[in-house]
Amino acid sequence: MPRPEKHVFVCTQNRPHGHPRGSCAASGCAEVMNEFMLEIQRRTLFEKIGLTNTGCMGPCGVGPSVLVYPEGVMYGKVGKADVKTIIEQHLLGGTPVEALKMPVEVW
Ligand code: FES
């Protein structure tokens, strides 16, 4: 298996309803994860982009959280419609999407 150029981690943590920390599951991460899978498949990017679902990465209140390495850029409040932008601008184009980055006090 070749080493991917970029590796995307999507938080898919769930917590019980009413939990004080909330969760990325409650804010729609499943849709985001699914959209990454579909776009990577559609564009045949399996060898270029790694995709892994993770547990909590910390900033639960501003999820769904998406972390991209090797840069260590974390995105917050990512929606299904943001996935194409992240793929085209950051993963393929090399320029992180400033408008979706976590606030500096968070990450
Ligand atoms: S639940 Fe996703 S960052 Fe904590």
Give me some keywords for this one:
single chain, 107 residues, alpha+beta, 4-stranded mixed sheet, 2 helices, 4 strands, 23% helix, 18% strand, globular, binds FE2/S2 (inorganic) cluster
Unreliable parts:
none
Number of β-strand runs: 4
Ligands bound, unique: FE2/S2 (inorganic) cluster
**Between the first and last Cα atoms, what is the distance in angstroms?**
31 Å
Content of β-strand: 15-25%
Mean pLDDT: 97
From the spread of the alpha carbons, the general shape counts as globular
**Main pleated sheet:** 4 strands, mixed
Radius of gyration: 13 Å
Provide the spatial order of strands within the biggest beta sheet: 2-1-3-4
The class by helix and strand makeup works out as alpha+beta
What's the number of helices?
2
Helix content: 10-25%
Helix and strand element order: EHEEEH
Topology:
Elements: E1 6-11, H1 29-42, E2 49-54, E3 66-69, E4 73-75, H2 82-92
Parallel strand pairs: 1-2
Antiparallel strand pairs: 1-3, 3-4
Helix pairs in contact: 1-2
The chain binds FE2/S2 (inorganic) cluster.
FE2/S2 (inorganic) cluster binds at residues 11, 13, 23-24, 56-60, 63, 65.
Description:
With 107 residues, the protein is of the alpha+beta class. The chain is 23% helix and 18% strand. The chain contains two helices and four strands, in the order E-H-E-E-E-H. It has helices at residues 29-42, 82-92, and strands at residues 6-11, 49-54, 66-69, 73-75. The chain has a four-stranded mixed sheet, covered by helices on one side. Strand 1 (6-11), helix 1 and strand 2 form a beta-alpha-beta unit. Helix 1 crosses helix 2. It is globular. It binds FE2/S2 (inorganic) cluster. FE2/S2 (inorganic) cluster is lined by residues 11, 13, 23-24, 56-60, 63, 65. FE2/S2 (inorganic) cluster (FES) binds next to loops.
